[in-house]
Structures are given as C-alpha cells and as structure tokens.
Amino acid sequence: MIDIAEKIKNTDITNLMTKRVITIAENQPLQEASKLMYQNNVGSVIILQSADEIDSEGVPIGIVTERDIARIVRFAQAFFPIMPISEVMSKPLLTITSNSSLKESADLMQQNSIRRLPVLDSKGKLMGNVTAKAKCQRLDSDFTFLGILLCILL
Fold first, then answer.
1. Which of 93, 97, 104, 144 shows a CA-CA span of 20 to 30 A to 111?
2. What digits encode the pLDDT tens for the residues 92-114?
3. Range of the domain at 100
4. What global pTM score does this model have?
C-alpha cells in the first residue's frame, strides 16, 4: 500500500503549478491589471520589476489579487484606476522554489494566509504559480476522497 502522507510530502511542486502566469510591470495602472485578470480569467497577476531597470523578463516583486482590488475599491479613501499597481501590490512577494514539495508550499501558504504562491527556478525566474485551488484539484484527481479530505486540512 502506498503511504499517502509520504507521497504528499514528496510531491514535486512543479506537478501542481500552473505554468501560464499573467504578469504586469510595476509601473502599469491598476486598471490594466484588472483588465488582464478579466481577459485571462485569472484571480491574480504577478508584478514584475520594470524591464528597463533589469533584464528583459523582469523580476517578480509583488502580487495583486481580485480580493486586493475589491478591498481597495471598497475601503480606500481615494481610489484611482490609474494609480500604479506598485502602490497596491502585496509585497514582499512570498515565493517557493521549483524543487520544493507540496507540503512545503502548503505550510508556507497556511502560515501566511495566502492562496497563491509563485514558483521560481534556481535563478529567480518565474516558472509558474501554485494555488490552493490547483492543489485541491490535483489531490482530488490523484486520491479522490483522500484528496478532498487533505485539501480541507491544507
């Protein structure tokens, strides 16, 4: 019998991550980030340091989620769709490396009350994004009932 706890502990995070990550430069307006999320049917965008300051691909420095935008619209004293995304992004950006396990990502997400975790390679390049939803879907497909139970616990 397969030890499920051991399999979860050793599951490579790259098997769970979404490789298609939507990014935006830090100097772009909040409105553009919202538009990208809507057009790509995603719940977040990763903010990259402006390419003119570094290499052409940019370094991930923050994240903005639909929830962040909803809070800004509802609670901000002054809301301007043209405000730079860098003013509203969550930072510092918490990330995980591509050689990390499912358990490590789950622990980091739980400890920091986050639902999305960018995955970086050994050089700091953005490879993908792990979400709580993706972890649940993968566990469900791998283990059915046990996947659902573990998803609840993670």
1. 144
2. 999 999 888 888 888 898 899 88
3. 4-153
4. 0.77
Secondary structure of 38-84 as H, E, C letters? HHHCCCEEEEECCHHHCCCCCCEEEEEEHHHHHHHHHHCCCCCCCCE
**Residue 105: closest CA among 4, 21, 12:** 12
Shortest CA distance to 66 belongs to which of 36, 43, 47, 35?
43
Q: Which CATH number goes with the domain that contains 134?
A: 3.10.580.10
Give yes or no for residue 2 having a pLDDT over 60. Answer: no
Question: Does residue 105 contact residue 15 with C-beta atoms inside 8 Å?
Answer: no
Beta bridge partners of 95: none
- The strands making up 96-97's β-sheet, listed across from edge to edge, are 96-97, 116-120, 126-131
Residue entry with tokens 């986050």: 114
Domain count, the chain: 1
Per-residue tokens: 149: 């139970």
**Residues shown for the chain:** 154
DSSP states along 121-148? -TTS-EEEEEEHHHHHHHHHHHHTHHHH
Answer whether 93's CB lies under 8 Å from 61's CB.
Answer: yes
Question: What's the N-to-C CA distance of the chain in angstroms?
Answer: 23
> Hey, what are 49's tokens?
């340091």
